[in-house]
């Protein structure tokens, strides 16, 4: 076989065939169990019926003997034999025992003592092979071991006339034997087994077929979903599957697929907007930089080269900051949340940034209010970037003051950055966290930021299993950061 050829498996690939095979296998196990139980129950009941018939025969023969009547040798359907002590041949026999010639010598042993006449006993006896050549053993009893039911009768309980009619001595002990034949029970059981086998095979075929076509019908909506989702492309993820009216698993599957397709559509639209916004943001400093350089090259003798170089440096810094933000967002989009081994004291971090933050451009007051150390797991550099972005945003909008507070609240560390600026309209409380969103579009882009600071801050908060929201305030804007609290290093 070719090494690249996939190995063939006996298990079918089709879900319909697998379901049919599984249903047939399960049904086969159940039917085998039921057949085993029916087989033994039928045999048990057949044997019980045979024993009841033998018991009835024993009591019938005993009643005839007590009347002094000898039962007809040719009569009866069950093999029986009446033997007496002191007598070589059987008193009477019938039902097939004649094939063993009990008239010459009784087949079953004579009683040594008489038991209670009302006591019925059943036990196995071996039938000896001494069949007379002229008589046919039609039941095939010779040489076998069978359950035999018997009861005793004392001749001294009978009148002399009855004893004489039976041909036994006055002090003889009589025993009535009836052989319990298993043939009837075995025959009934054999017939039942054949019926069960045929019915079981037919049932397995019907169950497998029913399972196959039931699954085939049930999977039709799935096939329709597969065909439709196969037509969905990255450039056009707007297709939606039809949700079945019945509220079953297929309905849940179709709803989930539509939800997933909607998320993909939203992600694709967001990516398109992000690319368009990034291109637009990059075009503005590039256009300014290119225009200033082209003017300087066209009129070199009239160009203020220090001013041109300053403009070029400023636009280059804008491009560098924008590129760094874009690269960071790309990394955050592909990295999973972390709870790193490092433990960061957010109180110390906020205090350090408060002391080091440059406020030379405008007269602003930056303060930090904290009551105790506040520890959280994560990356110190990413926490610094998050907090710095919040301070940068507050510095662009504050009128006179920026307040940072750090508190421990139960299992959380809550850090807020509050400025006394114009605030954020309620309807824009979530939109400001979108990428490239500025609420101060009328201002110069040179001072309005890239529109990525808050988006990066929220992504960093989510990466550390926290949240970043805009808390409602009557004056200014207050950004609230909540992070899972970590034990202090000395408390571990």
UniProtKB/TrEMBL annotation:
Residues 216-269 form the HAMP domain. It is found in: Cell membrane. SUPFAM superfamilies: ATPase domain of HSP90 chaperone/DNA topoisomerase II/histidine kinase, Homodimeric domain of signal transducing histidine kinase. The chain crosses the membrane at residues 20-38, 195-215. This is histidine kinase. Its EC number is 2.7.13.3. The keyword Kinase applies. It catalyses: ATP + protein L-histidine = ADP + protein N-phospho-L-histidine. It comes from Streptomyces rugosispiralis. Keywords: Kinase, Membrane, Phosphoprotein, Transferase, Transmembrane, Transmembrane helix, Two-component regulatory system. GO terms for molecular function: kinase activity. PANTHER family: SENSOR HISTIDINE KINASE TRCS, SENSOR HISTIDINE KINASE YKOH. Residues 277-487 form the Histidine kinase domain. Signal peptide: none annotated. Pfam families: HATPase_c, HisKA.
């Amino acid at each position: 076989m070719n090494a690249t050829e996939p190995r063939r498996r006996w298990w079918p690939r089709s879900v319909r065939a697998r379901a049919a095979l599984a249903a047939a296998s399960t049904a086969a196990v159940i039917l085998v169990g039921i057949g085993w139980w029916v087989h033994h129950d039928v045999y048990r009941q057949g044997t019980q019926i045979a024993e009841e018939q033998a018991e009835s025969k024993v009591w019938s023969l005993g009643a005839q003997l007590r009347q002094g009547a000898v039962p007809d040798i040719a009569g009866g359907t069950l093999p029986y034999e009446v033997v007496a002590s002191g007598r070589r041949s059987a008193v009477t026999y019938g039902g097939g025992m004649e094939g063993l010639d009990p008239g010459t010598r009784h087949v079953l042993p004579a009683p040594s003592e008489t038991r209670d006449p009302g006591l019925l006993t059943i036990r196995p006896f071996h039938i000896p092979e001494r069949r007379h050549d002229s008589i046919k053993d039609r039941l095939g009893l010779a040489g076998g071991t069978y359950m035999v039911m018997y009861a005793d009768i004392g001749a001294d309980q009978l009148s002399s006339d009855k004893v004489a009619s039976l041909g036994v001595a006055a002090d003889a002990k009589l025993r009535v034997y009836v052989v319990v034949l298993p043939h009837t029970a075995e025959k009934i059981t054999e017939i039942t087994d054949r019926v069960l086998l045929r019915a079981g095979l037919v049932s397995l075929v019907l169950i497998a077929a029913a399972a196959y076509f039931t699954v085939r019908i049930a999977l039709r909506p799935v096939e329709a979903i597969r065909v439709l989702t196969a037509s969905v492309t990255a450039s056009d993820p707007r297709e939606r599957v039809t949700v079945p009216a019945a509220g079953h698993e297929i309905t849940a599957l179709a709803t989930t697929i539509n939800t997933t397709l909607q998320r993909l559509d939203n992600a694709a639209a967001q990516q398109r907007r992000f690319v368009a916004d990034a291109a637009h943001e990059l075009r503005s400093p590039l256009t300014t930089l290119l225009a200033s350089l082209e003017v300087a090259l066209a009129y070199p003798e009239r160009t203020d080269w220090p001013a041109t170089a300053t403009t070029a440096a400023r636009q280059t810094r804008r491009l560098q900051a924008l590129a760094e933000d874009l690269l960071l967002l790309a990394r955050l989009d592909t990295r999973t949340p972390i709870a790193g081994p490092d433990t960061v004291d957010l109180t110390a971090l906020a205090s350090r940034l408060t002391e080091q933050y440059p406020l030379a451009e405008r007269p602003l007051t930056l303060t930090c209010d904290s009551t105790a150390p506040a520890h959280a797991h994560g990356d110190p550099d990413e926490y610094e970037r998050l907090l710095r972005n919040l301070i940068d945003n507050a510095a662009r909008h504050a009128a006179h003051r920026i307040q940072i507070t750090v508190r421990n609240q139960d299992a959380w560390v809550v850090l807020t950055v509050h400025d006394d600026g114009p605030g954020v309209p309620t309807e824009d409380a979530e939109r400001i966290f979108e990428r490239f969103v500025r609420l101060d579009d009328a201002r110069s882009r040179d001072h309005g930021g890239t529109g990525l600071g808050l988006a990066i801050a929220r992504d960093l908060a989510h990466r550390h299993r926290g949240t970043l929201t805009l808390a409602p305030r009557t004056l200014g804007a207050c950004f609230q950061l909540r992070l899972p609290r970590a034990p202090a290093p000395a408390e571990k």
